[in-house]
């Protein structure tokens, strides 16, 4: 059997593993957002339409979603070092291919290859750190894991804007090469080789139901955001198909006597269920805001891509500070307390953004972003800690995959809902004598506040400091 949580790593070994995981994971997160900043350049480079170009991001997101469910089985079967190195190598190959792409279509295909490598990285990293840290050091380990997940959407546009403006759009992919090589070298030295002596057979039917279900749901949510509603056939049909496939997977997983690709019995553990729901709604708030804010700075305030990226720095600073502090405070306070504080900060920052008008100063906006970024950072790390805290060692890999899938769906759902709300608000301004796009964004930020508030009841249901593995009856 693979090591359980009791077989924890030494402090030095855990530090090395943290460095390896962060080095690989942060590149995946940055790449997902750096590409967005180059869209305007790519439109002219490939002489294509935005409708075609959006598949550069959508294809990456869909391929990531497809392989996430495999991460638990793959970790048990092949071990952490082999799978971690393999995923980064696939991502590296995809990055090189993207950098030499000769058309929009070739770039889309190569982004899919990148996504296949990136999809397992975060759930694998969470599982490796949780197993090595054990329950006593899990909070600090998850605080480190939250860094790439939270900072990627903020720092990506800044880095992407610099590379596109000063070098060439191809460097948003070539910059991955030295970092990925370093990640592979470090991983080969510090990532453990442990794997299960008797891994469960792959749940092929479950995989054929769950992976397409997640992929078409993400696709449907993306189309809903693009076409301004969930009732548009381009969104409604894939969403309906996703729900049917997901229902089929639930029925299959509950009947299966063996081990399903995603164990729904984990949802009976109160800490896992409540924390995962908080992360789903937190993903809505984080990634929804990340979709709105660059557009706000460019459309409502007239900044270019580089300027918009720089103005997002306060949000990154807030996230960085809260992730650092939450890792240390997790040894003194329960995840419930930290998450409630984080949600309160998020609500406060979001409320300030609901008051935007054409004359709102950058200082006020920066303060709001500092609050909201700090709040989201304070939510993510403790919630990830609590979600895995009561999971036994042999189940951690599958629990981390389930956790990441919920976060991915939350991010996609949040982006879709907020873009739909924004588009509706902008449409209402079309016939106005003095249209105020800032006001349209202000109304959309009410949705972020609402989602953060909706997470509060689930935060209260999260565990205190006692590790009790309480089951829902």
Layout: helices, strands, pairs:
Layout: H1 11-34, H2 39-46, H3 50-53, H4 55-68, H5 71-78, H6 80-99, H7 104-118, H8 121-166, H9 171-174, H10 176-190, H11 204-227, H12 233-255, H13 270-300, H14 305-311, H15 313-329, H16 335-353, H17 362-389, H18 396-429, H19 437-454, H20 456-460
Tell me what you see in this structure.
With 473 residues, the chain is mainly alpha-helical. It has 3 domains: 8-201, MFS general substrate transporter like domains (Growth Hormone, Chain: A), CATH 1.20.1250; 203-260; 265-466, Growth Hormone, Chain: A. The chain is 77% helix and 0% strand. The protein is built from 20 helices and no strands. It has helices at residues 11-34, 39-46, 50-53, 55-68, 71-78, 80-99, 104-118, 121-166, 171-174, 176-190, 204-227, 233-255, 270-300, 305-311, 313-329, 335-353, 362-389, 396-429, 437-454, 456-460. The longest helix is centred in the first third of the chain and has 46 residues, at 121-166. The radius of gyration is 21 Å and the shape is globular. It starts with 10 loop residues before the first helix and ends in a 13-residue tail after the last helix.
